[in-house]
Structure formats: structure tokens, C-alpha cells
Write a structure and sequence with these properties.
Radius of gyration: 19 Å
Mean pLDDT: 89
Helix content: 40-55%
Strand content: 5-15%
Number of strands: 5
Order of helices and strands: HHEHHEEHHHHEEHHHHHHH
Strand order of the largest sheet: 1-3-2-4-5
Number of helices: 15
Low-confidence stretches: none
Distance between the termini: 55 Å
Largest sheet: 5 strands, mixed
């Protein structure tokens, strides 16, 4: 506890709320504390909560130490606690989203979030239960030919099950408006034996790049395969792209991303999904992934251009 107290004294840009100690637990327990803190906030729009943890402690290494320090510095920085653009509701070292990542998240799971956004989320423990149900349903839809799962997409770290659920939690809501401090798109840049410091930080709303760089993807070959024009049917149905994202948003929160969301500007076939979402509302995934929907390249392009 003294370590935390000393840290809080040094950081004058944040307010610490130390609620207790646990002999045994996990990130869902600490996320629940942050969640409760925001729920009790009298001014959630102007209150931000910072979430930190001892990332990499089970696998000590210089690269994990460097990554953890960079994530901590970013989440505690004034640029995250008081971002230049107040519409940013979650900030951290590096935000990641499809197509490079399998979902919306901050790799390493450290961030500063506006409490009114946190209050929109499910309770972390309820999220774990609901996410399990959502994944089970997605497997059924995959078996029916609706969702396309790339190789390894059924793995727990992709679907957000068990110990991977906490990392998926903060980015699970369709109203997330992220910003970050890493101008380097490569997810492994900060996880190196060479330390990178806050001198390299540069704040920006996500996405800071106009076009996705395949070299920064978790699996560049698979994403290159999906982004090929001849594979558009699989891409439209891909669980880790907009079909799966919107499906999870509806199943978890009964909401869809706003039509002005950054997701439709960044993710593959975003203009198409913006149009069909406007047409079909919450039925959009059922309609688009059905066997009778025309998912040829020409048909998708025509719909996208009709906006």
C-alpha cells in the first residue's frame, strides 16, 4: 500500500482511490473497483479514472518491464487525463483495432477513461458471463455459414474468454472514442529490450494514420488474404471485422456504433456497413450474413457508393 501512496503523491494530475487489498484475485476484480469508482462519481463527465496493473509480472523480462513502464507513463500523463480533444473517452499508450487487431483494445490493458463512458459498460463480472454467451452464439452462427472465422479466431485471446476477457472489456462498447500517445503503429515496438520513453509520446485521436499498414497487423498474411478483392464474401462475414464487432455490440449492449463513428472510416468496408446499418438497424448482421444477401464485390461497392 505504501508504494501506491508514494506514487499518488508524486502524480499531481490524477486522484487515487485506494479501496483495499486482496491476497488473491485478477484483473476483473480490479476493473470492478474502477467501475464502482466511476458509478459513484458525482460528475462522471468530468471525472476520469486511470487503470494500471503489473503487466508482465508472471513472465519477468526486460521487454515486459519496458512495455509496462511506457504504458504506465502514458496512462498517467496529462495528455491522457486531460486530452486536448475532450471527446476522447479512453486514452492510453497505444489503441489497436481491426483489421490489425482482433478487436478494439489497448494492448497491455492500461488506460485512462472518462467515467461517463465506463458507466455505459457492463459490470466487469457480468461482462465475462455475457461475453461467454456471445462467443458461444457466434460459434453456432459460424457453423451455419454466417460468420467467417480465420485460422485461430476461435482461440480465447481472440474471442476474449477467460483470462483474456479483461483486455477486451474497455473497448467493448460501440460508443468508444479512443486516443493514444504512440505514433508507432507496430504493436511490438514498445515490447522490446530497448526502452522507449515518454519523449516519444505524441497525442492524437484514433486513427492517426489515414490508411492501415499491413506490416503492423498481428498476422499480416491472414489480413492480406482477407483484404484481397476476391475474398470479399469472407471479409464481409469475418468475425474480427465489422460483422463481428457490430454483432457483439448488439448482443452485449443492444446498441450499434453511431453512424459518425471512426469505425466506419477505419475498418474494411466501413462505408458499406454504414449504409446497411442505416437501412437495417439492429437486424443488419442477420441480413448481411444471410445466404440470400449479395456479397459480390460489385454489389458491395454499389451499396457503399449509395451513401
Amino acid at each position: 500500500m505504501s508504494v501506491l501512496n508514494n506514487l499518488c503523491v508524486k502524480m499531481n494530475t490524477i486522484q487515487c482511490h485506494i479501496s483495499g487489498e486482496m491476497k488473491q484475485g485478477g484483473e476483473i476484480d480490479t476493473l470492478a473497483e474502477m467501475y464502482q469508482f466511476c458509478k459513484e462519481s458525482p460528475d462522471p463527465i468530468n471525472r476520469r479514472a486511470t487503470y494500471l496493473h503489473n503487466k508482465g509480472s508472471f513472465h519477468p523480462s526486460q521487454s515486459n518491464d519496458n512495455w509496462r513502464r511506457a504504458m504506465t507513463d502514458a496512462a498517467l500523463s496529462q495528455r491522457c487525463s486531460q486530452p486536448p480533444n475532450s471527446t476522447c473517452n479512453v486514452c492510453g499508450l497505444q489503441f489497436a483495432a481491426p483489421p490489425g487487431m482482433f478487436t478494439n483494445l489497448f494492448p497491455g490493458n492500461m488506460f485512462t477513461a472518462r467515467c461517463d463512458y465506463v458507466n455505459r459498460l457492463l459490470h466487469p463480472k457480468e461482462y465475462v458471463k455475457r461475453q461467454t454467451d456471445v462467443v458461444r452464439k457466434s460459434f453456432q452462427l459460424r457453423d451455419q455459414g454466417r460468420f467467417y472465422f480465420k485460422e485461430k479466431d476461435h482461440k480465447a485471446w481472440v474471442t476474449g474468454l477467460r483470462r483474456y476477457a479483461p483486455e477486451h472489456f474497455i473497448g467493448s462498447h460501440p460508443y468508444i472514442v479512443p486516443c493514444d500517445l504512440s505514433k508507432e503503429p507496430d504493436y511490438w515496438y514498445w515490447q522490446s529490450d530497448t526502452p522507449h520513453t515518454s519523449i516519444e509520446f505524441e497525442w492524437a485521436m484514433f486513427p492517426r494514420q489515414k490508411k492501415f499498414n499491413l506490416s503492423a497487423a498481428v498476422d499480416p498474411k491472414l489480413h492480406a488474404f482477407l483484404l484481397n478483392k476476391s475474398n470479399i464474401d469472407k471479409r464481409i462475414r469475418a468475425y474480427t471485422y465489422l460483422a463481428g464487432l457490430i454483432f457483439r455490440h448488439i448482443e452485449l449492449y443492444n446498441l450499434t456504433p453511431p453512424l459518425h463513428s471512426w469505425m466506419f472510416d477505419w475498418l474494411p468496408d466501413g462505408p458499406f456497413w454504414r449504409v446497411v446499418l442505416q437501412r437495417y438497424g439492429k437486424s443488419v448482421v442477420n441480413v448481411v450474413t444471410s445466404s440470400i444477401f449479395n456479397r459480390t464485390a460489385d454489389a458491395i461497392a454499389e451499396i457503399a457508393e449509395s451513401h
